[in-house]
Specification:
Blueprint: H1 2-66, H2 69-92, H3 97-118, H4 128-191
C-alpha cells in the first residue's frame, strides 16, 4: 500500500514538473514569435511608407506635366496616408529608442513634404528633394529592422529547438522514472 501511494504521489509530482516545463517552454516560444511578428509588422509599415512616397512623387510629377488637379489631390491624399502610417510606425517602434528617434525625424520630414504638396502648383519646383530627404531617414530604418528581423528569427528558432529538447528530455526522464516505479510496484505485487 505504501508503494502504491508513493507511486501515485511520484507520478503526480513528475506530471506536474513535466506540465510546468512544457508551459514555460510554450510561453517562451510564443514570446519569441511575438517579437518576430512585431518586427515584421514594422517592416510592413515601412514598406507602406515607401509606397506612399512613391505615389506622392509620381503624382507631383504628373501634375507638373499635365496641370491636372486630380494629380495634386492624389498626392495630397497620399501625404495623409503617409502621415497616418508614420503615426502607427512611431507607436510600433517605441520599444527601440534609436528607431523611435528616426521615426520622429521621418515624421518631421513628412510634414515638410505635406506642406510642400499642399502648396504645389504647376509652376512650382519639384518636391523630389523632400522625398529624397524622407528616404534618407527611411532606408536606414528598413535596414535596421531587416537586421533585427533576421536576429529575432534566428533567436526564435534557437529557442524553439532548445525548448523542444527540454520537453523531450523532461518527458523521457519522467517516463523512465514512472516505468521504474511501476516495475517496483509490479515486483512487489508479484511477491505477495
Amino acid at each position: 500500500l505504501r508503494l502504491l501511494i508513493g507511486f501515485v504521489f511520484t507520478t503526480l509530482c513528475l506530471g506536474s514538473v513535466v506540465a510546468l516545463v512544457v508551459y514555460a517552454d510554450t510561453h517562451s516560444d510564443i514570446s519569441s514569435q511575438d517579437m518576430v511578428s512585431h518586427t515584421q509588422q514594422v517592416l510592413i509599415e515601412l514598406q507602406g511608407v515607401s509606397q506612399q512616397l512613391d505615389r506622392i512623387e509620381l503624382n507631383a510629377r504628373l501634375y507638373s506635366l499635365t496641370s491636372d488637379d486630380n494629380n495634386v489631390r492624389a498626392a495630397q491624399g497620399a501625404t495623409v496616408t503617409l502621415n497616418t502610417l508614420l503615426l502607427r510606425l512611431e507607436e510600433l517602434v517605441h520599444d527601440n529608442p534609436a528607431e523611435e528617434l528616426r521615426a520622429r525625424d521621418l515624421l518631421r520630414e513628412s510634414n515638410q513634404l505635406s506642406e510642400a504638396t499642399d502648396r504645389l502648383t504647376a509652376q512650382s519646383s519639384s518636391i523630389r528633394e523632400l522625398v529624397v530627404n524622407c528616404r534618407r531617414v527611411l532606408n536606414p530604418m528598413q535596414d535596421e529592422e531587416r537586421t533585427l528581423l533576421s536576429e529575432r528569427e534566428t533567436e526564435a528558432e534557437r529557442n524553439h529547438l532548445y525548448s523542444l529538447a527540454r520537453r523531450i528530455t523532461t518527458i523521457a526522464i519522467g517516463t523512465v522514472l514512472i516505468l521504474i516505479l511501476f516495475g517496483f510496484l509490479t515486483r512487489d505485487a508479484l511477491r505477495r
